[in-house]
Automatic annotation (TrEMBL), chain B:
Residues 242-274, 320-351 form the 4Fe-4S ferredoxin-type domain. InterPro entries: 4Fe4S_Fe-S-bd (IPR017896), 4Fe4S_Fe_S_CS (IPR017900). GO terms for molecular function: iron-sulfur cluster binding; metal ion binding. It comes from the Bacteria. This is Sulfite reductase subunit A.
Length: 273, 356
């Protein structure tokens, strides 16, 4: 029997806290008005609704101590700007969590490379936390940022280092104070230690960055089936009914956003697919 | 229930209306067969036929007393199963309410076999996945389908290729076959609802001659398909992403979205949000969208499919190939509407035939 709420109807959540991360980016902690936040897998996303303005897909970057979702939003359009402008106490709509998350179990016992570009660190944050919680092998986290002051979650990066991860950051446009490496995140692959044939990789960032990173990892001997990417496509519904996020036979909202490189590499090579 | 014969549609329309159904059937409006609510069978497009070719639709007189001597209308059941615009919810303060959408009873009179197949495709899309749509189900249950077996396929029809017609075999409440000399309709029932309606009509049992004539209508229609598609190996052919054909058809395509609007299975939608000036109520509306629009695939301000060729390839590939991966069935039912209503006459059957 089909009943219950319409799949497009959000639940109402209250903004519990708001933390500006960078000049254009804000992390909100959201708690439902009624009941509890449903469980989520690292890599999943929700549809966040700014009342009267619109709805966008935003990855879940963690669970706050209070139990709410933390979600990091960059103001790039009308809806994301409206969400970034929300203050503690304001009400937003939330649908989800949706989609396939990171293959945490598949990485068990292997070296792990986590590669992030820009805001791509947001869906990887809960993954790294989970990996650090129950790990034996090496964990390398390589992060590319356009500029030093645009680096996301510096506090988390420092904590992960203390917890034993090899965390490295590279920037594209250094400022005077920057002493670290300069360039694209693929350059950091040289600097980390991993056994390619025993390595699992999780990659999230702009599509070109993910393509290059995955190709470089594979060139070094990592199996294409052990590289996961989180794809970004236009999403209006997140429940495979609006058609916008199609990528070949896939609905990125339901079949992804996390997809294995061996499955998507041929499709990523097709322009405008 | 065995097939029966009725001599007139008037009692059928009256019976449906008395049962609370809005009867929607084919009428002539602005020299096109359109589907709209009718108060009596007199309004039906009696005596008209149509001529359909790529980018061309003309009505013609001369079908005598025949009521259904035309092929697909630009209207399909989609307008009733998935309305072009619907309110999803309203939010005021800290309250959110789904739009109390009642699903009024609608009897669609004159639905063709291809359209029944299209409804089956929609059922799969809206009810067969992980997130079934309760509003779709309500509308679907309120919809009574009176099919008509095609006698005069159009020049752009290819239901035989897609294995969806021309005869209605399933998915209807009633199925009519219109016969001439003398003018009459053979009525088959496909549901209990349909049987109850037939039981209330003046009727007689169909004779062996009636049934043979009815079968002959479909046999004859199957031999007069205007178009053909070779479905064997179609997914392999559509995997030719870099064929020069895409650029050629992209140069002709106006990305006007007509094909997706008249397609009975195209299901893509977008949402519109607004806030009332008077009381601050926020409202979210879902409306038909098309993969031919530039912003359909936009991510962070840039469309994934910026070229006409890319968007045409997406549509054709989805309809005939990736739809099968997603839903286990083709997205095309062979109604030919996209060919007829394409302003530059792009013919999907020709495009498919020209792929390597």
């Amino acid at each position: 029997m089909i009943g219950g709420p319409h799949p497009m109807t959000p639940a109402l959540y209250r903004v519990r806290s708001r933390r500006p991360d960078r000049v254009d980016t804000v992390t909100l902690t959201l708690e439902p008005l009624r009941g509890e936040c449903p469980p989520f897998h690292p890599g999943q996303f929700t549809m966040l609704y700014a009342p009267g303005v619109g709805e966008i897909a935003v990855s879940i970057s963690g669970r706050a101590r209070s139990g709410g979702y933390t979600q990091t939003i960059r103001a790039v359009g009308a809806v994301s700007a409206a969400l970034c402008g929300k203050r503690p106490g304001d009400v937003v709509g939330v649908r989800g969590p949706y989609g396939q998350g990171w293959g945490l179990r598949a990485a068990a016992g292997l070296d792990v490379v986590v590669a992030a570009g820009g805001l791509g660190l947001a869906p990887l944050r809960p993954l790294v936390r989970a990996l650090l919680g129950d790990r034996c092998g090496r964990i390398s986290v390589i992060v590319g940022s356009r500029a030093p002051d645009l680096l996301l979650y510096p506090g988390d990066l420092a904590r992960w280092t203390r917890q034993g991860a090899d965390v490295r950051v590279i920037v594209d446009h250094p400022d005077h104070a920057w002493r670290g490496p300069v360039g694209l995140v693929t350059r950091l692959i040289d600097r980390i230690v991993f056994e390619p044939r025993r390595t699992y990789a999780f990659v999230c960032g702009p599509e070109a960055m993910m393509r290059d990173t995955a190709a470089e990892l594979v060139r070094r001997g990592v199996a294409p089936g052990r590289v996961e990417l989180s794809l970004e496509r236009n999403m209006k519904c997140a429940v495979a009914r609006c058609g916008h996020c199609q990528f070949g036979p896939l609905f990125v909202c339901e079949d992804g956003p996390v997809l294995r490189y061996d499955r998507v590499a041929p499709m990523l090579a097709v322009p405008e697919l | 229930m065995d097939a029966v014969v009725i001599d007139s549609l008037e009692p059928l329309v009256d019976e449906l209306r008395s049962r609370g159904y809005a009867v929607v059937g084919p009428v002539v409006r602005e020299r096109v067969i359109r589907f709209e609510e009718i108060a009596s069978a007199d309004r039906l497009a009696r005596g008209w036929t149509d001529v359909q070719e790529p980018g061309r639709y003309r009505l013609a007189e001369g079908a005598g007393e025949m009521v259904f001597s035309f092929a697909a209308s630009p209207d399909s059941a989609k307008s009733y199963t998935q309305p072009p615009r619907q309110t999803l919810f309203r939010m005021r303060g800290e309250q959110i309410e789904e739009a109390e959408e009642d699903a009024p009873r609608v009897a669609l009179l004159g639905v063709r076999a291809c359209d029944l197949a299209a409804i089956a495709v929609q059922d799969r899309v809206f009810l067969g996945g992980r997130h079934p749509d309760p509003a779709y189900l309500r509308r679907r249950r309120a919809l009574l389908l009176v099919a008509v077996n095609c006698a005069v396929p159009g020049g752009t029809c290819f239901c035989v290729s897609m294995h969806t017609g021309p005869r209605a075999t399933t998915g209807f409440d009633l199925a009519l076959t219109e016969l001439a000399a003398p003018h009459r309709f053979v009525v088959e029932t496909g549901s209990e609802r349909g049987e109850q309606i037939v039981a209330a009509l003046p009727r007689r049992p169909a004779s062996a001659e009636d049934l043979a004539a009815s079968a002959e209508v479909s046999r004859d229609a199957a031999e007069h398909m205007g178009r053909h598609v070779e479905t064997e190996g179609i997914q392999e052919r559509l995997s030719a992403h870099d064929s020069p054909r895409w650029t050629q058809v992209g140069a002709r395509c106006l990305t006007c979205t007509n094909c997706t609007m008249v397609c009975p299975t195209c299901f893509c939608t977008t949402v519109e949000d607004a806030t009332s000036f008077t009381d601050g109520t926020a409202e979210r509306i879902e409306r038909w969208d098309s993969c031919f629009t530039l912003d359909f695939s936009e991510v962070n301000g840039t469309p994934v499919r910026g070229s006409n060729a890319g968007r045409y390839r997406q549509w054709l590939t989805h309809k005939f190939s990736t739809w099968i991966d997603q839903f286990g069935m083709s997205g095309c039912v062979g109604c030919g509407r996209c060919i007829t209503w394409c302003p530059v006459g792009i013919d999907v059957t020709e495009e498919l035939a020209n792929l390597p």
